[in-house]
Amino acid sequence: MFRRILAETMLAMYWQLWPQQQALANDSNAVNVADLELLCHIMNLHRVANDDFDDGELPTAQTEELEKLNMSLSVPSWQEKFPKDVTPDETNPDYCKNARAKDECVQAWNKWKKAAAALKHPGSFPTKALQTAAKLTSPAGAAARLAIANLLEQANSLRTEYSINVRPEITAAKQVQRGTIQHAIFAKAGDPSAPGKMCAAELQTDRTTSCKADKAAATVCGTALCICAKDSDGQSGDLCSGGTSNTAFVHSGSPNPGEVFESIWTKCGQAQAGKLTSLRLTHLIRAFRARLQTKAHASGAVVSYGTAPSNNDCRSENNKGCADFTLLSATKASSEIKRQIWIDDLESAAETIRQGEVSLAKKKGYEAKLKRLLAQAHRLDKALSHEEIPNVISATQPHPTTPDSKQGEKCRQHKPKKTCE
Length: 421
Known about the structure:
This is Variant surface glycoprotein 1125.4958. This protein is mostly helical. It has helices at about 1-25, 35-45, 60-70, 75-80, 100-120, 135, 140-175, 175-185, 205-210, 220-230, 255-270, 280-290, 340-385, 405-415; strands at about 295, 300-305, 320-325.
């Protein structure tokens, strides 16, 4: 019985392991799987959702409430200048006829009109209650008016600062995925929306010339082709595992980088895309640089990515494939390197994203500050509503008199005084 159970168990294990053995056999030449895996994670940054970079305007609710509060604390004579109900915007109000900055004046006037109209309809007013004329003209009212006007000015300054200095950086970070990153991966002529035309890597007459850093390897997709693709010159192995090299390179006549790349792109889609952040992009670039190798060649050292052929110059050789990045080596260059390829583009994109991340944090801080400014304005308005305004007697008005004071006055005028008391 024990032998039978053991035999059945071993048979079951064999059938479980057999597909794996077959797969391993098919992958006997897959020497660049890890190298493609890294490129897949870089290329998948083009697939990820990029909704985090919200470059919309700051909320207007807090500023509008501050405008209403500011108007509600203005002196009655100013409030009376505006109509009680909402009216269409004016293009040339009397108030602005002689203004130097007329456009700004007209814009402010129409904003004040809306705020003043809101005072006539308490349901649309933040505090649902208005201050009395006595409080508005009191010293406490003047102090509250100045304080809330200052809060409104701070809110408007925040909005201006955001529009001029913060929002553009968020927009740039939002656009970098379909701009710099897309061009680095597929080349500017590549069309990610068109199957077979996604990769526009620059192919030359042979694999050696094509797979240099100033040709096909100037793009991420071209680098992937160089380490994975088959060709008609001698490389027929599945360098990046089966399914990534369904179509062979055509170097001369009608180059086909887009067609060759299609199967690589499909396979890379199975990897987790992750999030597009400056930190992730920077780490991927560093990981790529760390995998570059130095090999000896008759003409000097060769810096390559992938598995180099016997003479190390990335030419076509069966079961070998690499991309030549020697042109980017400072020690091999005869002068300052000014060439820019996908590595440089992605480093630039990472910096753009980093600045966008900083600006996005600023935006959230601005939104929180707008709420704090409005809350502070509400506290000032509430404090004024609880303020006791003393009765002030005008110097031109007679002082009030009491019955005793009237009798005393008569006695002072009466002679003899005793008969009065």
